[in-house]
Amino acid sequence: MKTEAHLFAGVAAFFLVSDAAYIWWSREPAGGAALTVAFLMASVIAFFCTVTYRRKGRRPEDLRDARIHQRAGVVDFFPPHSGYPPLTAVGATLLMLGIVYGLWLFIIGAGIAMTGILGMTLQFVDAED
C-alpha cells in the first residue's frame, strides 16, 4: 500500500497545484471547486493507503521476490445476504422524492435511510466485544 499511497499523494499534489493556479488566473468558482474536490478525494485515498500500510505492513505484492503461494489463504470477510441495502435504497429514494414533494416525505426517507445505514454499519458488530 505504500506505493499506492505515494501515487495518490502525487495526484493530490498535482490537483492542489492545478487548483491554486486555476483559481489565481481564471477567477471562475466552478472549476476551482471541482479541482478542490478532486484534491480532497485523492488526499482521502492517499491517507487510507498510508494508514492501511502502517497498520498491516508490507504485502507480498510489495516484494520483488514474492511467490504466488504467499498470498494464499483467507482473503477477507464477505457478509452474507442482508436486507439493509434495499432498505437504504428505499430511504434514499424517499429522500430524493422528499426534495420534490415535501418535507414530510424527506423526513420519512431520512429515517429509513439512517436505519439502513446504521444496520449495514452495525450488522456484524459482536455484542460481546
From TrEMBL:
The UniProt entry lists membrane topology as:
Multi-pass membrane protein
| Catalysed reactions, semicolon-separated | 4 Fe(II)-[cytochrome c] + O2 + 8 H(+)(in) = 4 Fe(III)-[cytochrome c] + 2 H2O + 4 H(+)(out)
A Pfam family (short name) is Cyt_c_ox_IV
Q: Which InterPro entries match?
A: Cyt_c_oxidase_su4_actinobac
Source species, domain of life: Bacteria
Transmembrane portions of the chain: 30-53, 103-125
List keywords of the entry alphabetically.
Cell membrane, Membrane, Translocase, Transmembrane, Transmembrane helix
Q: What class of enzyme is it?
A: translocase
EC numbers listed for it are 7.1.1.9
UniProt-annotated location(s): Cell membrane
What is the similarity comment for this entry?
Belongs to the cytochrome c oxidase bacterial subunit CtaF family.
| The protein's role, per its UniProt record | Part of cytochrome c oxidase, its function is unknown.
Name of the featured protein: cytochrome-c oxidase
Species of origin reads: Streptomyces gamaensis
